[in-house]
Amino acid sequence: MSAQKAVKALARPERYPLYLYKRILRLHYGLPPPARLMGDTYVKDEFRRHKDASPEHTAVFINEWTNYCVTLSKQLSSSGIVKGFIGKDLEPEKLDSFAEEQLRQLLDLKIESERMKKGEVPVESTDPADASNSKESGSN
User: Fold this and answer.
1) How far is Cα 9 from Cα 11, in angstroms, rounded to an integer?
2) Long-range pairs for 130-139: beta carbons < 8 A, 24 or more residues apart
3) What residue spans define the domains of the chain?
4) pLDDT score of 2
5) Rounded Cα gap, residues 59 and 37, in angstroms
6) pTM for this predicted structure
7) What contacts 129, CB < 8 A, 6 or more positions away?
8) Region annotation Disordered: residue ranges (predicted)?
9) Which residues of the chain have pLDDT under 70?
10) 139 vs 42: CA distance, rounded Å
């Protein structure tokens, strides 16, 4: 994304979540195909779920996804690729602050990523709305 587009996004803060969403999906192009599929599915699901979140939750949500975007951008840069590692471990303090639902979601993500590594199953969204949409589109 160009610096000019980034400045425009910052000039209109209400558009920043959309800019961030698009930027993350573009960064995912640099991931191996199975990781990209899993990442895209997860990002789309999370942004959809937080579309109508309270301002307090939205601020935390945007901050965390911005951190993810910056970290992934660094890891996919030429110097990051040389190190050969994508991702980072969660800090114990952050893990302790997670709600039960977040811990369950994290466990589901871990299980899915392990399946992906083994090539066991394709990644699908966990959002029930996606399942009903695919059923509706299949019956037309």
Assistant:
1) 5
2) 130/45
3) 3-88
4) 58
5) 26
6) 0.66
7) 48
8) 117-140
9) 1-3, 5-11, 78-85, 120-140
10) 26
